Amino acid sequence: MPDPLRHVRVLAEEIGPRAATSPGEARAARYIAEAARVYTHQVWLEPFRTFTTPRLPWLLIFGTCLLGVMLLPFNWQASAVFVTVGAVGGLGQALHWIELGWLFPLRESQNVVAVVPSAAAIRRRLVLVTHVDSPIGGHPGEGAAGPALVLAAGELLARAPLRHTEVWTVFTGSREPGMAGLHYLLQQYGHMLADADFVVLDRIRGGAPLFSLTEGRFPAHISDGDLAGYLRELGLAGVDLTGHETQASLLLDEGFRTVALLTVGQGQVSPRALHDLVRLLGALGGCLDRDACTEAEADSAGM
Fold it and tell me: How many angstroms separate the Cα of 19 from the Cα of each of 99, 107, 135, 138?
């Protein structure tokens, strides 16, 4: 069984904080790419430019509203304009209708993509998605479990490749400021992955693993029913995350078949839980491939 704990130690202790677009994030991406080459030769880094923090847009929104309030004694019409613009901008930013971060200076981030080929013709694709960067101001260990799990799952699935299911292991950069890496991934490969099954690993901390039934603010997104069914078959329970978001929210909003794996506890995830999750991801790949093989056999019999 591949050991995800060694990746957690490197990311959390040797590399440390991995803020979006920082040298730490870039170092972590290079480490992940080298680790992924253990299980596949199809590994590449994709750089992109993005804004650096979600705080600056909110400061702009707050400043616009504050200016409107200050203008009220002198010019109520101008005051109303500034307050309205600030309120609309805040609502649009909160609901992801607009992204004001692009008004500020951009820096370079990167995604890491590693593909485990199927043994025979591709009939399904499983995409395991996590993020490289750690939360702003958070502990360096926070966010390290996701990449560690996806690396270990990729290694496990590469040891005995699935027959008709290609596996993508995706490590996005700049998740914290607006899920910029995931946006870039979909721009590049959304057409190729239109029929893929996405599993997002986000908020992996202490506590028992669960999967998201719903998530997002408004409107709430419902996770893919088939993927939820596979996870129930494997003994996992679902949880309602309405009002909270993982990277699955963006994928569901774009119409991709998606579910998120997470934990609801605090603190660091235990070594046993990490190994259990690696086995779970391997078993999920087996469930998807079982159905892909059944479809292939049915098509062959009908010829």
Answer: 19, 12, 7, 9
